[in-house]
Design goal:
The chain has 176 residues and is α+β, with helices and mostly antiparallel strands. The chain has one domain: OB fold (Dihydrolipoamide Acetyltransferase, E2P) (Beta Barrel). The chain is 35% helix and 22% strand. It contains four helices and nine strands. The strands form two sheets. Strands 1, 2, 3, 4, 6, 7 and 8 form a seven-stranded mixed sheet that branches. It has a two-stranded antiparallel ribbon with strand order 5-9. Helix 2 runs antiparallel to helix 4. It is elongated. The termini are far apart.
């Protein structure tokens, strides 16, 4: 979808039934892909870099779906194209509330900037483009994703150490 074709659709409100959520920050509106211009959600599997990011991405997509359903639809304000060629647009829920800002406030997305937010790394509370830490029910989402990733790394190290000490290999491990 080109930026021009999105401009033609910008003034029209789109009913919730015309909008399909592909990811927390990616929609299909009347069959055209539109990315939320002011927010970047964590990546869904298989593109997620850790299972904490993947879990948060599923939450972000589910919340996006719920917000659109509650609002009854969206209104798009085009803002160009992303590097991937997908149209960028500000998305107003029911013509009023901004979807990107709602996701950021709830800790389910970071502000879109030149550098990607690292959902798997240690929390960087000094970055102004991060999720809304301390503001909303999902405020510490990135911190929780980091904790989950750390627990995953520790579990993998423990399992590897146990297997090495017992002389087992991954092929002989049946999970019981």
């Amino acid at each position: 979808m080109t930026y021009r074709s999105l401009i033609l659709a910008a003034d029209a409100a789109h009913a919730a039934g015309d909008v399909r959520v592909l990811a927390g920050d990616l929609l299909s509106v009347d069959g055209r892909r539109v990315r939320v211009a002011n927010a970047r959600a964590p990546a869904l599997p298989p593109d997620a870099r850790c299972w904490g990011e993947a879990a948060l991405a599923v939450q972000s997509a589910a919340r996006t779906e719920a917000l659109i359903a509650e609002a009854g639809g969206v209104k798009l304000t085009p803002e160009g194209e992303g590097a991937d060629g997908v149209a960028l647009a500000r998305v107003a829920l029911g013509g009023r509330r901004d979807l990107g800002e709602a996701l950021i406030f709830q800790g389910l997305a970071a502000r879109r900037s030149q550098t990607d937010w690292d959902w798997c790394g240690a929390p960087d509370f000094d970055r102004a483009d991060g999720p809304g830490f301390g503001r909303g029910p999902q405020a510490n989402a990135q911190f929780m994703a980091w904790i989950a990733a750390e627990q995953d790394r520790q579990m993998r190290r423990s399992l590897a150490r146990l297997m090495w000490e017992s002389g087992s290999s991954l092929e002989s491990f049946d999970g019981s």
